[in-house]
Amino acid sequence: MEIGIVGLPNVGKSTLFNALTSGHAASSNYPFTTIEPNVGIVLVPDDRLPRLTSIFQPKKTVPAAVRFVDIAGLVKGASSGEGLGNKFLSHIREVDAIMHQVRLFADPDVVHTMGGVDPARDMDVIETELALADLSSIEKQWEKVSGKARTGDKDSKKQLEVLEPLQKCLGEGKPARTLGLPEKDVRDFGLLTTKPVLYCGNTDEKPDPAVLKSFEEAVKARGGQSIALCGKIEAEILQLPEADRGVFLADLGVTKTGLERVIVAAYELLGLQSFFTGGPDEVKAWTVKKGWKAPQAAGVIHTDFEKGFIRAEVYGYADLDRLGSEAALREKGLIRSEGKEYVMKDGDICFFKFSS
C-alpha cells in the first residue's frame, strides 16, 4: 500500500518524509526541490510485537509496513501544467491514499508560495487542482463512452450513469469522494479525488492556537481526518539516542511521537489491520484490508496458501497475552479452526493449512 505526501511547495513534505523514513530526500528553501518522487518503506508501530517476541522467542521479528511517496509540490494551475503539474499529478494517480500536508508554521526564511499562512486557502488550492485534473479526465472519458452509448451499448450506458454525477460534482470543484459512490463504480476511472485523505498540519515549535483552530475547522468542513505535528521537532527527535527519546517525549507531555501517530492514522485511513504469525523462526505482522476473509489473508503470505486453503487455526492476541502460551490456549479450548468464510480480525494469530 502506498500513501502519497502532497501539498504546496515549501510546506515541509520532504522534511516529514525524511523523518518518517529516516531517509535522505532533499529538503531546502526552494520550490520543486523534489522532482521525481522519493519512496520509503515505513514500519508500523505495534505495541503487541514485543509481547509476541517474548512469548515465541523467534530469531527475528518483522513489523507491518507502509510505503510513503514524497510527491513534488503542486501549485495553482497544476492541472494545466503549471510547475510541471501534469507530471506530478500522474505520480499521485499511482498511490492508494493521500496525506495532504498543510503549512501551519510562519518562517520568514522559508518562502511561502501563497504569501502567508492560511490553511483553508492552501487546502482549497490543492483540492481544486486535483478536481480540475479529474474533470479533464472525466470529460475525455465521456467523449469516448457517449458515442457507444448512443448505439445502445449497455456497458457504456451504465458508465454514463456514473460519469454524469461525477462531471457535475467535479465541475463545482468538489472532490469525487463527496458523492459517496461505491468504489467498484469509480475504480476504473483512475480519479485523484476518490482517494482517502489524511490532512497533516506542519506547525511551529509553539503552535499558534488561532492557526490550529483554522486548520481543524477547514478539515472538519471537508469531513476529513487530521493530525498536527511539528516536522522540525520530529526530525530533532530522530537525532536523539533511542534511550533518550522517551524522556524528551515525557517533557513534551506525550507518549508517542507525531510520526508514530501519522503512521498509525495513515494505516487506519487505508482501512488496514494486522494479523500475526509466530514461531521459533519468526514473528511477523501481516497487513490485510478490513473485511478480508481467511483465504485472502493466507494469500498475503503466499499465493499458494490462498489457492490451496483448507482451514486456519486462529486465536486472538488478547488471549495469548493473558495466558502466555499456545499450550495454555489449547488447554482452555481457545484455538479455533476457521474455514473459508471466516472474516479476519485485527490481532488474529494464525496458522494456515493448505494443500499443495
Give the N-to-C terminal Cα separation: 28 Å
Question: Which structural class should the secondary elements be placed in?
Answer: alpha/beta
Q: Tally of extended strands?
A: 12
Low-confidence stretches: 23-35
- In order across it, which strands form the biggest sheet? 2-4-1-5-6-7
* Average pLDDT taken over every residue: 86
Sketch the major β-sheet: 6 strands, mixed
Throw out a few tags for this protein.
12 strands; 14 helices; six-stranded mixed sheet; 43% helix; three-stranded mixed sheet; 356 residues; alpha/beta
What does this structure look like?
The protein has 356 residues and is of the alpha/beta class. Helix content is 43%, strand content 20%. The chain contains 14 helices and twelve strands. A six-stranded mixed sheet has the order 2-4-1-5-6-7, sandwiched between helices. A three-stranded mixed sheet has the order 3-9-8, with helices on both faces. β6, α7 (209-221) and β7 form a beta-alpha-beta unit. α1 (13-21) runs parallel beside α8 and α4 (119-150) packs antiparallel against α5. The longest helix has 32 residues, at 119-150. The radius of gyration is 23 Å and the shape is flat. The two termini are 28 Å apart. Residues 23-35 have low confidence and may be disordered.
